[in-house]
Amino acid sequence: MSCGSRSPNGENWVQAGACWTASRVPLGVGLNYVEHVEESSRSLDTDKELPPRPVLFSKPSTAVTGPGRPILHNGDLTAQLDWECELAVVIGRTAFRVSEQDAYDHVFGYSIVNDISARDQRRSGQWFFSKGQDSYAPFGPAVVTADDIPDPMALDLSLRVNGVTKQKSNTRHMLFPVARLIADISSGVTLEPGDVIATGSPSGVGAGMVPPEFLTPGDLVEATVEGIGTLTNPVVDAR
Q: Please, are residues 12 and 144 in contact by the beta-carbon 8 Å criterion?
């Protein structure tokens, strides 16, 4: 990730999107905020009990797109395109069987992932096609190095659709914090430099609204994490 420089205010960052290593697979964490577990059990038919271990999944690298790039809405495949603002952890050193105490030594920095989901494409409980379609992992707008984010577990995060706030929370409400996620994943899967972990969504997803709300072509989605910036993507018709 050598495509970056220092920002005008002196913070260390690299511009995201263009410097993503396309061969790497983004890792996702489901049901990692307590209130999102409740809303998911009510609206998405998931377990109402808190998960005892991190719920993990992956997206193909072709799902990744950059800031300002379109989120593809294919009306032939979905009528329930949803948003999820998430803190992204970028791995900087190879991690295998890493303890929670040592986990942060393997973090390069932090960014934002909007975990786009076609809710009506969840198949027998599996999320791959629901969350893995092209453009379903907007990433950016920058990677802020770990030394400029002293406590990733105290960051405000929010999401707006067409200027209206839909999600508003703080990373302190994660069920499994960043260090636990790195330790859990690396207990059996080697994390390599450039790997990205999307750490889960707070409540406020479209499927949980009353009535439910979903993205349509022409919408503008803005995901914000304190200390990192705002990831902005338009929704376009891909039929």
A: yes
Total number of residues shown for the chain: 239
pLDDT in tens, 167-211: 999 999 999 999 999 999 999 999 999 999 999 999 999 999 999
User: What is the C-alpha to C-alpha distance for residues 174 and 153, in angstroms, rounded to an integer?
Assistant: 8
* Residue 82 exposure: Cα atoms within 13 Å on the Cβ side: 24
* β-bridge mates for residue 113, sequence order: 86, 139
Is residue 174 within 8 Å of 199, Cβ to Cβ? Answer: yes
pTM: 0.91
Instruction: Kindly state the tokens that stand for 64.
Output: 């990744």
- How do strand 71-73 and strand 229-237 relate by DSSP bridges? parallel
Nearest alpha carbon to residue 216 among 122, 63, 40, 82: 82
Residue 47's CB is within 10 A of a number of other CB atoms, namely 11
Distance CA 122, CA 81 (A): 12
